[in-house]
Amino acid sequence: MPWLVRDAVRDINRAVARRWHAIDPLLPDPAAMPTGCSAPIVVEAGNGRPVVLGVCVHHRVPAESLNQTWGAADRFLLTPRLTGQDTYPATDALLSQWRDHLATISTARGEDTSACVTWPSRDITGIRALLRHGLQPLTVIAARTRPPAPDRPPRQVPGVTIRVAGSRDAEQVLDLELRLIRYDGHFGGPVWRRDTAMLVRQEVRVSLERQTMWTWLAERDGQAIGLLVAQPPPEAGWISGMTSRSPAAYLQTMFIDEQERGTGVGAALVRTLHARLDSAGVAVTLLHHSQVNPLSGPFWNRMGYRPLWTSWEARPVRALR
Ligand SMILES: CC(C)(COP(=O)(O)OP(=O)(O)OC[C@H]1O[C@@H](n2cnc3c(N)ncnc32)[C@H](O)[C@@H]1OP(=O)(O)O)[C@@H](O)C(=O)NCCC(=O)NCCS
Fold first, then answer.
1. For residue range 110-164, what is the model confidence (pLDDT) as tens digits?
2. For residue 261, how far is its CA from the centre of ligand 1 (angstroms)?
3. pTM of structure
4. Which of 152, 295, 296, 303 to mutate to test the pocket of ligand 1 (most atoms within 8 A of CB)?
């Protein structure tokens, strides 16, 4: 079996690379399969040859990590490798085996758990199977590539100033960061934890002190009304493997005060970032947004972003059918 799996992984990865590149040029080559909690889940074609692989990885996110705010504490991640044109039957078989595997794991039985599959957004053939197994499309990774001609310059919004934030702005940045997490909580992604505010405060302090991130504030009458935080390529290595283009930056936070929305402040902040990214030669910018946030999809599309990956989740794990 091991040689078969090794050969099969190589063949399947090649086929997956061809498939992904045909679906979406911004997808990367498939990464090496992670080491799973058990042997890969294999779906065989009629001739006994594996056509589909899935690896399940368990991830316990500690309470002292801010990452726990972004999802369940116990995460069970499936990495699928699907070949063929119509992946529905294979996806269906793979998810059935994964569900049965998770049913044998005691830590997957708790409330604070999730089963998660990150799926190429344009790979539409397996989506019915994801839905059939109780997975929900929670989060999108959207991408914007550097335009061939310069983007529109930032437009002035009367009475609003945009400036780089520094250490003395930590409280205003924290306030807007926390309001964004509360707002996003409506869409089932983030989970407000006991230590969320303390951990965000720490992160804001460190990032403003070290200036490792690009942080801009929009102000009216000296009052912060909008925030944009982005990670330049040296900070965005953790997500850069999700796309074929390089270098990649990551847009981490975007929030405009409710009273100020729809007046161009968000666009002014984003265009300020884009001017910086484009002049620095950044090839692609990635961001996460909630699939069901009614404000983010239209806004990000106007700003030049489109879906690349969709994260499908069942929370808790027992919601997987
Ligand atoms: C999403 C958000 C940042 C947009 O900021 P904003 O200041 O309201 O957006 P703007 O007024 O600058 O709009 C920019 C463009 O997007 C369009 N737009 C903005 N929101 C829209 C919406 N909900 N539906 C359709 N179009 C929208 C505007 O019409 C405008 O288009 P134009 O350039 O053709 O005039 C803001 O609504 C917000 O903070 N929402 C809550 C937090 C959030 O959702 N953050 C994003 C999480 S990833």
1. 999 999 999 999 999 999 999 999 999 999 999 999 999 888 787 899 999 999 9
2. 7
3. 0.95
4. 295
